[in-house]
């Protein structure tokens, strides 16, 4: 009669660990592959959703930008309009012109151009209005900006932008530091927001220079 040999529990645990160790590398590789697949699928889905959202919102964004530009050009030129007739008024009273790689608008003896440039925290967008001789700034309007709320974002306030009115367009604008602007090409700085003030001065100056060069070269 054969004797039964009792199995050693310690030996079984050791054998189980050995088997587990031999299986671990494969399971780890499989887990990593699954993680990679999940990340790739998630990325593809995210990109697809983003593109779909952009495609859906693009027409609305374009309409908003068109409305913002046309209504602000009309207002800057002092031309009355309503939400129902601004497109027709714009077509009748404003002439789009181009030359030297730039585009601008002529309205009631005024020359108006869009500007866009980097501020302290993001892009600054707006329009600048010159007189018919291209020698004087009539108005500046900021349409979009990303400056610090309560400080730099004051560059959009009409009360501040009034400091540009009547300034020369024949010289580069300069920011008046530690004193009120008195020179024909000086613009006041916003207290506590010197960098944002300087950014707007630089953007407007560049826009005015390009506009004068293009408009003097003749419109098409």
From the structure above, extract its key features.
220 residues; alpha+beta; 5-stranded antiparallel sheet; two-stranded parallel sheet; 4 helices; 47% helix
Description:
By secondary structure, the protein is an alpha+beta fold. The chain has a domain at 94-216. The chain contains four helices and seven strands. The protein has a five-stranded antiparallel β-sheet, with helices on both faces. A two-stranded parallel ribbon has the order 6-7. A hairpin with a 5-residue loop joins strand 4 (123-131) and strand 5. Helix 1 packs across helix 2.
What layout of secondary structure does this protein have?
Elements: H1 9-76, H2 86-93, E1 95-99, E2 102-107, E3 110-118, E4 123-131, E5 137-144, H3 158-161, E6 174-176, E7 186-188, H4 194-216
Parallel strand pairs: 6-7
Antiparallel strand pairs: 1-2, 2-3, 3-4, 4-5
Task: Give the gist of this structure.
This protein is an alpha+beta fold and 220 residues long. It has four helices and seven strands; from the N terminus they run ααβββββαββα.
